[in-house]
Amino acid sequence: MTVDPENQNETTDDVRQVLFVIYADISLLDLAGPLQAISWAKDTETGRLGYHSSIVSLTGGSVPSDTLVAIDTQSMASWFGKKIDTLIVVGGDGIYPAIQDSNFLGSVTKLASQSSRVCSVCSGALALAAIGLLDGKRAVTHWEDSDALRRMFPAVALEDDPIYIKDGNIWTSAGVTAGTDMALAVIAEDLGKEAALERAQALVTYMVRPGGQSQFSPVLERQKTESSGRFERLHRWIRKNLSGDLTSERLAAEEGMSVRSFYRLYTKMMGRTPAKSIEMLRMEAAREYLETSNLGVKSVAFRCGFGNEERMRRAFVRLIGVPPNEYRKRFKLTADSP
To answer: Right CATH number for 219-331 from 2.60.120.230, 1.10.10.60, 3.40.50.80, 3.90.1150.10?
Structure first.
């Protein structure tokens, strides 16, 4: 048994080595969340720690985060040739300049080749995509970085909603706190569900979070594909008439087009049908009512054009993974309960 001078964790040959890769301007919580979950995860049969964690950067030394806290690191090269169980690339705004650095990407590639499992937190997925690890694989990142990842790395089968995705030995997670969800899932796979549940209870968080990350992101912003603004005026009109006549015939008339031409152009430019956009705009309005007003769910459903409460409930469950009442409990901004 040895003691690591970097963090004083006791290690043995059967303890899994986890390596966190960081760079300047990481999101501190992207690192701290999964690090906290993994650092104290124990084998429930032996009571011994299941992991040994280290933090690395390209050159080592002190690395600034996006807060006042700087992180002491070892160099990535110091781990070349060593056995690594899990490699985790954390996220942050600094990932964009980092993936322009060939030395950084080369080092990540080398460490990944030595690792049994490779993970990313938040925008850290861009580093895995940049070295080709995500080509043809399902992946997820923070909803704010989804458009950039799609544009830069079209070979990735990017999904918008999951909190985390496992595809083979590659794990990716959504924004910030989703790294903790992923870490708990890794613990469950390695040490068993009981060990992961213990960590979830200690961290006062869900073992399995209900719903996906779209419950936290603006529906239209997350799925927006048009940059020309061609239908911006129409969308403003729809928002003012959510409970009115929104048939394709009415929308086409508003645009001064035939129904066939309107449907074809809209679908081509927006990447979705008019009906899908209307549903998303209704969801956007309903979420705002639930967050900021005391209107009952039935009234919200009527005002937003869903027609009835059950239809709105089905849309919420399908699109963001939670029903309206549960969404309101989590995100209501006013002090009074409805």
So the answer is: 1.10.10.60
